[in-house]
Structure formats: C-alpha cells, structure tokens
Amino acid sequence: MTKIFCPIYIKKTTSNRIFFAQNQQLSVLGQAVLSEVNHAMWYGIPQRRVFTTDTNFIATKKNERLKFDIQLSMGILRLLDDVQNGFSDSLRLRSRPFSLSRKISPNNIQSKAQLDTLLAQISPKNEHYQQLSAFLRAHLDTANMKMKLLPVPLTKEDSLLALQNAVKNMETLGYSFEKYPTWNAVDKVKFYQRSIGVKTTGKIDAVTQFQLEETPRNIAERIAWYMERARYEKKYPKSYLRVNIPEFQLYYFNDDTIATIHKVIVGKFGHFTPEVSSHLFRIQLFPYWNVPYKIATQEMLPEIKKNEKYLAKNSLVLMRGDKVIDPKKVRWKKLNKKNFPYKIRQMPGPKNSLGIIRFDFWNKFDVYLHDTPSKWYFKTATRDYSHGCVRTQDPLELAKKILEIDKNKLLPDSLDSLMHLVPDTIPYERRQRFIKLKKSVPIFLEYRTVAVEPVLKKEHEDKPDEYEEKVFLFKDIYRKDEPIIRCFFEKNDKNT
Questions:
Q1: Cβ neighbours around 163 below 10 Å, total
Q2: How confident is residue 57, by pLDDT bands cut at 50, 70 and 90?
Q3: For 81, phi and psi rounded to 5 degrees?
Q4: Which of 472, 475, 474, 447 has its CA nearest to residue 131?
Q5: How far, in Å, CA of 391 to CA of 389, rounded?
Q6: If DSSP codes are grouped into helix, strand and coil, which group holds residue 9?
Q7: Distance (Å, rounded) from C-alpha 456 to C-alpha 465?
C-alpha cells in the first residue's frame, strides 16, 4: 500500500493555511511551491506523479482554499520524495510507491530559498546525474515544448501518407526546401536522412520514423529517464571495455584513463546487439566462423540453390558433425530452413566475415568483438549493419593495447609478426592462434541513447591525452526507450 504523509494540520478554529496569505490569496511561498510542483520535469520527474493545475487558479471559497492547500502540500511532498528516491521501482517498468518521511513537512518550508536548498540537498550527488540535470534544464529553457508532430507511418504500411506527413514534420522541424523547387517528397526524405546520418533510401524505416516523430517534449522525457537510470549507475572497475551500442563507439579504459577509442558496427534493427556484462578472456587470430543456423538457412541457402559455387567463392565449407561434405552430392532442392541437417563454416582468411581477429567474452548470446573485411562501413555515421556481433575498427591496435596492459608474454610486436606471415608459406587455417589473457578484462555492451561521454580536450605526446565529459543524444536505433517513455510519461502532460 502506498504510504503518503497527509498533513492534517488545519484546525476548524482558524482560517490560516500554509500557502495562503491573510488576504486569502496564495502567499509568495505558495506561488513558488505551485510553480515547482507544476514543473516537475525541471527535476526529471513525470508531471502526473506530482501535481497539475492551472497556475492562474483562484480559490474563492474557504473549502476550496482548504482543498487546494492540502493538494499543494501533497504535491510538494511528492516532488521532494521523487527527487530524493526516484520515480521508478528500481528501473522496472512500474512506478515506485511514495514513501514520504514525516521528517519533511510543508510546515517546515518557510521560504523559496529554503525550498531550493532542500531540493538541492536531497538530489542525487553523482556527477553524471548532475550533468544530465543541467542538460535537461537547458533543453527545457530553449526548446519549443509545445511543438506537435504528425504520426509518420512506415513506407511499407502506407507509402503515400508516410511521405506526406514526413515532409510536413520536416517543415515543422525547420527544414526548408525553397532552394530545391524540383524535389519531390522522396528527394526531401533522402535529404533529411543524409542530414541525420542514416541510410539514404527515401523510404520511412523505423529509425527515420522515430526521428521524424520525436518532439522536444519526447527528448526531455528521454533525458529524464536517463537521469533516473543515473541514480542506479554502477561503478566501473579501473580497467574495462565499454561499447555504447547506439553511439557506435568502443572505449577502453585503464586506471581511469582512456587507453584507446574505436568506432564499431552493431546489429541492425531486428538483429539487435544485446546488452552484456562479461569478461574478455581470449583473443583469436585468423578465426573460423561457424555460421549461425538462422543465417545459414535464411540467407545462404537461397544463394547456394541459385549457384553451388557460392560456397567456394566465399571460402565456405559444408559440414555434417565434424566431417566436410561435398556440396555436389547434396540434394539442395529438398533443403529448407526446417530441414537443414548441416553446418556451414567459413575458413580463416581475408574473406572471413570475422576478419582476421576476434575477441572472446562469455555470454549466452554467442556475440563477440571482431574484425571485418567490410571496412567502408566505418565511414558511415549510423553503423547498424551486423547480425548482432560488434565489428571493431582497427582491431589489431585494440589487441596490441590489451596485450600491452595485460603484460602478456605475447608482445605487441610479436602479434604484428604473426599477422603478417606470407600466406603462401603458411595457410591461413594453420595460422589460427588462441591468446589467453593473464587477467580477463571486464566488458560492458550498453544501450544508452542519452549518455555522458568523454570528448578529447587536448592531445599530449609525453602523457595521456586530456578528455572532458559532455552529454550526447543518440538515435534510439532499436526503439527501446519508447515503451519506457509511454509507461512513465503521459502524452497529455501540458506543463513543463
């Protein structure tokens, strides 16, 4: 049962109220409290949890003043409780019951300065929460919180309406096409997609749809949710790897200093890269790729049926158990995704989808960091192209840095030698090597669309580079924030 301290403090013999002056109007303190409880989003709190009323409300009758005074008292107590303890039930998709302390009473708040001091005292003190809080305030102060955008269907749902509403929303968001009078709606969508760094198709996909429908209020709600998450932020170890999936970036920290940063490619929509906390324990050179059953049957099998040379062309071998099968002896027409008693393995080498190096860490999803032969993807801004694994730019440099910090017996120079042996002398499959780390490295695959991340401030030759932290907004590429926002924030909240 929700425990709420209801201040029954008004005696029948007096007309005094906490937030009303002797002239029966809201006092200066009452006006300040009304402003605070009507703008819960200033503190990253869903408005519906606290209080909502017209700021011009006038209580003309005694019983109205009594009721309003109690409501205002309850509102400020709820706001104080949520600022101190958060609004979610330990980040689960349900609201936290109120647990108001009897130590805090509206009677103890005598001035706006005292209220401001109390709110500052009970706010979380961790640095990321404070940075997000300041970022939210700046957004609320500058953005048009009353902006309305039209729903934009996916192209496959209603292609005509999708283009019509997309163009209208672009214009609402400030895009002008007066310089391009010959452009049609598809051209305008392509222009928008280029501007936000997503695939330029001219079609409304899930990511484009999200960007076109997200209002400044939605952005504020996203920031507020990540403020809530910051309350429960874990303390990272001194040395660890961290990938922020929607940022497409990998950070390697050692002794609280950035050792190296790498661009990454993550899973595309429908093939999500999972959130994982694990330990990287091994590096593989020239790995085999055991093709997942789903990819083998849904993507490769149709290609093999069209052309049996597909396997050889892509350095793929067909296996049953541990035995290699001659593809010419297989009746391919009888095989389908429900009837495929084989495994497909890709041999080590430059055509291997894992590239020439792979980083292993324990997880139930069978994902890992690895190289890729498709380097050009790293030139794109929105890098969601994989089947779930994390492809890493400059993986050899990452491996050398890991081995250097690990003080591994295989020195970085030795790694170079192993990687650059002449293939004609030693076949790729005979060059496979497993390098076990002396000490496993914690690794975190995270999903944060609002994040405090390091930015290079000053480079140094003789000591580590200097970084400063800033707040960034990233695209919700998997639409994971959307159900959370719906759960906690009402769409019809009008006050900011």
A1: 21
A2: low
A3: -65, -45
A4: 472
A5: 6
A6: coil
A7: 7
DSSP tag of 325:
E
Distance CA(244)–CA(251), nearest Å, equals 9
**In this structure, what token pair is assigned to residue 443?**
């690794």
Within 86-158, where are the H helices?
A: 112-122, 127-142
Mean pLDDT, rounded, for 188-208: 93
pLDDT tens string 127-174: 999 999 999 999 999 999 999 999 999 999 999 999 999 999 999 999
What distances in angstroms separate CA 254 from CA 121, 244, 376, one per listed residue? 33, 17, 29
The pLDDT of residue 450 is above 80: yes
Average pLDDT for 270-297: 95
Confidence of residue 350 (pLDDT cuts 50, 70, 90): confident
With CA atoms as reference, report the closest residue to 325 among 309, 307, 340, 343.
Answer: 343
For domain 238-288+347-447, is the CATH number 2.40.440.10? Answer: yes
Closest C-alpha among 282, 284, 243, 278 to residue 264 = 243
Task: Determine the average pLDDT of the residues in 403-415.
Answer: 81
Averaged confidence pLDDT in the chain? 88
Residue 7: the pLDDT is: 43
Question: Alpha helices, DSSP H only, in 197-306?
Answer: 206-213, 216-230, 293-295, 301-306
**What tokens does 482 get?**
């959307």
The helix/strand/coil state of 400 is helix
Domain boundaries, the chain: 1-123, 159-214, 238-288+347-447, 292-346
Max Cα distance, the chain (Å): 101
β partners of residue 455: 468
Task: Give the pLDDT of residue 22.
Answer: 73
232 in helix, strand or coil? coil
Which residue type is seen at 202? G
421 contacts: CB under 8 Å, gap ≥ 6: 431
CB 342 within 8 A of CB 318: yes
